[in-house]
Design brief:
This protein is α+β, with helices and mostly antiparallel strands. It has helices at residues 4-9, 60-75, 85-94, 96-99, 106-117, 123-141, 151-162, 167-184, 219-228, 245-252, and strands at residues 17-22, 25-29, 35-43, 46-55. The protein contains ten helices and four strands. Strand 2 and strand 3 form a beta hairpin.
Length: 256
Amino acid sequence: MLTDIALKALKPAAKPYKQADGGGLFVLVQPSGRKSWRIAFRVEKKQKFLSGGTYPDVSLRDARAGRAAVKAQLTLGIDPTVEPLVKTKKLAETKEPVAKPDRNSFEAVAREWFKTRLLGWTPRYAGVLMRRLEGDIFPLLGKEPISAITPRQMLEALRAIEQRGSIEMAHRVKNHCSEVFRYAIPDGRCESDPCRDLGPAMARPKPVKHRAKIPAKELSAFFDKLNADNGARASTCFDKRPLSGNHLMANMETPT
């Protein structure tokens, strides 16, 4: 990762060269000494680049914030080269009365919470999480004031997921929603988490059934039966001869 000291120490060379900060962000040093920010990313398996201004006019901190904004757009399926950040902001301002959800609606708070957590997630996980909310929660509760949503409403939304047979998914979505409610409590937009006590009322996923373990005293007979099987072997012993149960047990003994 870059630091301001490292950036200031970068000297021009005969040819332009790159110095990476990570996550697709790098500074391009020109022979003239000009240091320009670039952000590399992929859209539909094609590599693209965005210019982030010049250093030190654009600080390292601001360049990293730009990288985070680009990743957020990619997570939401937006190509930053087609819909630049400035254009997106202006578009939101002109359509705000119609398109922008109320600041205190569940969807608005959820998207705000999502942005604050984005840097700690991989793009894939962030995309999966947002698709869960957009597919199962926003259509039912997205426009509701977050302070007015009741445990009953949340339970009905989660049971709709359970009815598809996605029991574990319902519990994951409940946890996501719970974090959104808890995010809104400190600034007064919400007084409590309606997901807190829903666990007992939700269906439980099928418990994982593990194979029964074989007691040590039965291993000898088990390996004898295994060697007697005429099925195809995935692997063989080093000497290409089946080992007897007694020989295997002897090899398992701790030497004295």
